[in-house]
Design brief:
Elements: E1 7-12, E2 23-26, H1 37-40, E3 44-45, H2 53-59, H3 66-78, H4 81-93, E4 95-100, H5 109-123
Parallel strand pairs: 1-4, 2-3, 2-4
Helix pairs in contact: 2-3, 3-5
């Protein structure tokens, strides 16, 4: 019998929760402004998978710093046990939606995390 394939998606936490979100995990180190815990409908707030505070502050969501940020964040993720937690959640739930608060849907740490998880899945 084939095992169901685990998957990941990203979504702004300000968007309405959906039935197909699967397990909802906030991957920001700071709680997003204006979002109640009830509205967020989280399974988990995994602060430890977010970029380190110095890296986050240096990046400051400036597009011209994104490639350097990406490389340094991927280095952090490579040794981060919280990544294994996400993989385990995906195996349990089938789908994990990584929630983030950043405004830019392309230039943010959740996008890097999603791509890192996808590359890790291909490597196994």
């Amino acid at each position: 019998m084939a095992k169901a394939r685990a998957s990941f998606a990203i979504k702004r936490i300000y968007e309405e929760p959906a039935h197909d979100d699967g397990c909802r995990v906030l991957v920001d180190r700071l709680w997003p402004r204006g979002v109640s815990k009830e509205r967020a409908q989280l399974e988990l707030w995994l602060k430890d998978v977010a970029p380190s505070p110095p890296l986050r502050q240096e990046f400051a969501h400036m597009q011209e710093r994104f490639e350097d940020f990406r490389a340094r964040y991927e280095d952090e993720l490579a040794g981060n046990p919280a990544v294994d937690q996400l993989v385990d959640l995906a195996a349990q739930h089938g789908k994990v939606t990584l929630l983030y608060a950043a405004r830019d849907p392309e230039v943010n740490h959740a996008r890097v995390l999603l791509e890192f998880l996808a590359a890790r899945g291909r490597a196994k």
